[in-house]
Amino acid sequence: MSEHAQRATILEVARDAGVSKTSVSRYFGGERERLSRDMQRRIAASARRLGYRPNQMARGLKGGRSRLIGMLVADIRNPFSIAVMHGVEQACREQGLSLMVCNTDNEPALEREHLALLAGYRVEGLVINVAGRPSRELEALAAQGTPLVLLDRSLGDFEADVVGLDNARAIDSALDHLQAQGYGELLYVSEPTAEASSRQARLARFREQLAARDLSGEACCLALDGNAPALERAVAAFLDAPATRPRALLCANGNVTLAVTRALQSLGVPLGETGLMGIDELDWCALVAPGITTLAQPTEDIGRTAVDSLLQRRAERERPAPPRRIHYQAELIARGSTRR
Amino acid sequence: MSEHAQRATILEVARDAGVSKTSVSRYFGGERERLSRDMQRRIAASARRLGYRPNQMARGLKGGRSRLIGMLVADIRNPFSIAVMHGVEQACREQGLSLMVCNTDNEPALEREHLALLAGYRVEGLVINVAGRPSRELEALAAQGTPLVLLDRSLGDFEADVVGLDNARAIDSALDHLQAQGYGELLYVSEPTAEASSRQARLARFREQLAARDLSGEACCLALDGNAPALERAVAAFLDAPATRPRALLCANGNVTLAVTRALQSLGVPLGETGLMGIDELDWCALVAPGITTLAQPTEDIGRTAVDSLLQRRAERERPAPPRRIHYQAELIARGSTRR
DNA sequence: GCCTGGAATGGGAACGTTACCATCGTAGGC
DNA sequence: GCCTACGATGGTAACGTTCCCATTCCAGGC
Q: Per the database entry, which stretches of residues form a coiled coil (chains A, B) (predicted)?
């Protein structure tokens, strides 16, 4: 291993060990036990001495197995995405797979671009968490047989496995809790639902249950990026309207919880008297004022399950099993913000 | 593009367009302008119709250019890491590079494993943010000529470019601020410094300045993972000790700020009267009680600069330029936690 | 008219692996 | 003692690119 030595190749190792490159290939390709004790020792010694690492590019080319999993994240700064990604990463590592993470910043153009790149690397599976309709690229990948799993949101009528939260029951348990705590006038705050099925599911369930239960309230969808004033106005309007029962706000996800908490603080509204509750558990929910009640998603599990699902698809390859939908239950973490 | 069609190859496109594969290669390899108008049209049409994407594996193999950048992150759940990663990712995209992110969860074994994998993919550059001494793997990578850049922490006497915070001046401005606000008795809280140069630099500067200024105080280093009680005891001891001037806590990074805030809350200590300040700006610092004063790092810039540095190294290839060290200034965000 | 040169294109040999198909012993069944 | 079969090993042809070196064509200088 001199100064600017190129990486050693399988051929050099083979020569150095006095064996054929096939044997070296077998050694590193997981067929070690097929080799004699002696040969194993010699290969190990040579490889170690030369600092040999199998070239994954060559491997991927020849065998068609890139050992790569791609992940498309709509917003990498969302803690939920990070937590899921952590699960995905662990599962991949356990399987000897590497992960390529691409952040689309919610831009469809970036999404297509990244998808094209991942396709170029011939990823063996794709974990996807993006907005919008399925792009040409995605359809090509699917048609080509790349295992896909959608995180949190399904994609139009696109047929693929989905792993996420049981949104209906999550909303139900939120409402159960709020009702039990005596809140009767609700405002549900969400980001725009147009492009994300999970947001739609939550919103729909909220509306549905509002009618079914002894509750009144409304929902409000708005984009959060930078227009805090709009949100503040909406919250203020809700708080100023006449009401016969205690009021509470329900936030559709962590981003909303952050924005709403800011708005409430800016309006000087004390939490608890006015209820506040959010989907997604965040680091700081325990720290703000009386603590913010949340519904925690089992993020790591979701990530791991996504990878499992991918591998299963790959295993049953040509079999056209119907799309699986795996829904996890949220866990209620009650804190002061829903205690009057 | 039939149901389970394999991806088209360059040869198929060439045949379909009635040209040679060299021409197709040129078209996709960024030598488009060398081709006649007519040929460009024909290739574009065929490629589009067949859904052709250059196989990056083959590219990487032949040309030795993987178009891949690797990033090693010690703790992916640290918001600082995420923010930097976002910058890295943007810079990579602008350069047409893809990013492979590996999380080491602060485990040296995982670090080696991931490094080996990245080496296998022949990454063209490596952004590294990990603890500990340089591993064999890392040294091999470096010796082989892979451009490296260290994030936030330097690695023993390992020679490589470093991008991070100007730790000395960051501590100075923290102390300036605390002093100006009238605090005179300080507790500096850090995670163990053994394996991270930036932690060492901050701690050393703190101790040094304590002596140089009219301040008294001490420093306390402890592991945060799960032993909240220990931290709580340390904080309580500081608060109980007799003092002639107002007390303040200075947190070495975002993790510490989170843990200390929890400890203070659990002890029922009001912020402001007891000062609190942290390095790293976090989503929720404005939300907790009177707001927590922070020193914000220019995370995106740090990430982008890291990639720039990598590219520059690659450009000046065989030239043995001395290691560069780029240090950014932190920005003070004053809030209620340091107002008496 | 011939030679030079550059622009447009094509052919073939790598790149480092793996998969398939030999080849070689040698132990065991008859 | 011979044939079979299996276990251990090796040789070689792909995989899909890029890069180097032709080749062709035509414009322009002498």
A: none
The long-range contacts involving A170-176, CB below 8 angstroms and separated by at least 24 positions, are A170/A202, A170/A279, A170/A295, A170/A329, A170/A330, A171/A202, A171/A205, A171/A206, A171/A209, A172/A205, A172/A209, A173/A295, A173/A330, A173/A332, A174/A250, A174/A277, A174/A279, A174/A295, A174/A332, A175/A206, A175/A209, A175/A213, A175/A215, A175/A250
Contact status of B323 with chain A (Cβ, < 8 Å): no
Amino acid (1-letter code) at residue A13 = V
In a domain, A4, yes or no: no
Do B133 and B181 belong to one domain? no
Q: Residue with CA nearest C12 C1'? A: B22
Residue of A56, A76, A115, A285 for testing the chain B interface, max B β-carbons within 10 Å: A56
B123 and B183 together in one domain: no
If asked whether residues B72 and B127 sit together in one domain, one would say yes
Query: What does the pLDDT look like over A33-53, one tens digit per residue?
Result: 889 999 999 999 999 999 999
Token pair 């509306």 is at which residue? A207
**Does a structural domain hold residue A135?**
yes
Q: Are residues B155 and B183 in the same domain?
A: no
Determine the Cα–Cα distance for residues A93 and A95; give it in Å rounded to an integer.
Answer: 5
Residues B284, A287: C-beta atoms closer than 8 Å = yes
Dump pLDDT digits (tens) for B43-70: 999 999 999 999 999 999 998 889 999 9
Tracing tokens 């809280």 back to the chain, one arrives at B189
Please indicate, yes or no, whether residues A177 and A269 belong to a single structural domain of this protein: yes
Does A291 share its domain with A180? Answer: yes
Q: Which of residues 46-75 of A touch strand C (CB under 7 A)?
A: 52-55, 58-59, 61-63, 65
Check CB contact under 8 Å for B287 and A120. no
* Residue ranges of A 144-183 with Cβ closer than 8 A to chain B: 144-145
* Confidence bin at A131 (pLDDT 50/70/90): confident
Q: How far is A4 from chain B (nearest CA, A)?
A: 5
Note whether B82 contacts A: Cβ–Cβ < 8 A. Answer: yes
Whole-number Å distance, CA A19 to C1' C24?
15
pLDDT, residue A2, reads 42
Helix, strand, coil percentages in chain A from 3-state DSSP, rounded to 5? 45, 20, 35
What pLDDT is recorded for position B325? 93
B3 in any annotated domain: no
**CA-based nearest residue in chain A for residue B270:** A289
Distance from CA of B96 to the nearest CA of A (A): 9
Q: How many domains does chain A have?
A: 3
Q: What is the pLDDT of residue B2?
A: 42
User: Which of A53, A139, A264 is the best residue to mutate to test the B interface, defined by the most B CB atoms within 10 Å of its own CB?
Assistant: A53
pLDDT of residue B206: 98
From the list A116, A143, A283, the residue facing B284 with the nearest CB is A283
In a domain, residue A118? The reply is yes
Average pLDDT (B144-150) is 91
User: Are the C-beta atoms of residues A285 and A329 closer than 8 Å to each other?
Assistant: no
pLDDT single digits (tens) A159-211: 889 999 999 999 999 999 999 999 999 999 999 998 889 999 999 999 999 99
Please answer yes or no on whether B122 and A7 come within 8 Å at the CB atom: yes
CA distance B246 to B249: 10
Q: Say what the pTM is.
A: 0.91
A69 plus A28 within the same structural domain: no
Maximum pairwise Cα distance, chain B: 88
Q: Which domain holds residue B78?
A: 65-164+300-328
| A33 in the same domain as A124 | no
> B327 CB near a chain A CB, below 8 Å?
no
CB proximity B55–strand C (7 Å threshold): no
- A143 part of contact set with chain B, CB < 8 Å: yes
- Residue-averaged pLDDT of chain A: 92
pLDDT for residue A128: 95
Give residue B176's pLDDT: 97
